[in-house]
Write a structure and sequence with these properties.
With 156 residues, the chain is mainly beta. It is 13% helix and 39% strand. It has a single domain, classed as Immunoglobulin-like (Sandwich), CATH 2.60.40. It starts with a helix and ends with a strand. The N terminus is likely disordered.
Length: 156
């Protein structure tokens, strides 16, 4: 029999995985919530790609906004381009180098797991940085990671 602490950790891990899968099981609405909460399970994926992850030949880039753009208003219309792969609307473990999702990072914070190539994001006045990453069907990164060039812009 395992000690209670091990069982509690196992249950907590299972609950965290279930919450993550539930959050990713269907495309989110076009409205990003005011609190851009990212499940803690994604924290491990924000800084590195494990060596055991597959690679991709896909290339992701940000079409809009352009570098040094000035945005008037509280909403940012983001357009992303993806070559060599397609976006899939579900999360699964069938990892293919030519299928996946796009994650957007605003000011180095994951703000959305994108199931399309366009999105309107709420923004505040100031200077911001936006980048995109093409990730596998399970929302984990490829190795090496497929990042867009960072785009700096200002919101007024």
């Amino acid at each position: 029999m395992r000690p209670f602490g091990s069982r509690a950790r196992s249950v907590a891990s299972a609950l965290a995985l279930a919450a993550l899968l539930a959050a990713c099981s269907s495309p989110p609405s076009d409205n990003v919530p005011d609190s851009l909460v990212v499940p803690s399970a994604y924290a491990a994926y924000t800084s590195y790609a494990p060596a055991s992850r597959p690679s991709t030949m896909a290339k992701v880039s940000i079409v809009s906004p352009t570098a040094d753009a000035v945005i008037n208003g509280s909403s940012l219309h983001v357009v992303v381009s993806l070559t060599g792969a397609t976006i899939v609307p579900d999360t699964n473990e069938d990892i293919r180098p030519d299928q996946g999702h796009v994650h957007l990072y605003l000011d180095n914070t994951l703000v959305y797991m994108q199931y399309s190539l366009t999105k309107d994001l709420p923004i505040t006045p100031g200077t911001h940085v936006l980048k995109a990453e093409f990730v596998a069907n399970d929302h984990a990164p490829f190795n090496p990671r497929d990042w867009s060039t960072q785009v700096f812009f200002t919101s007024k």
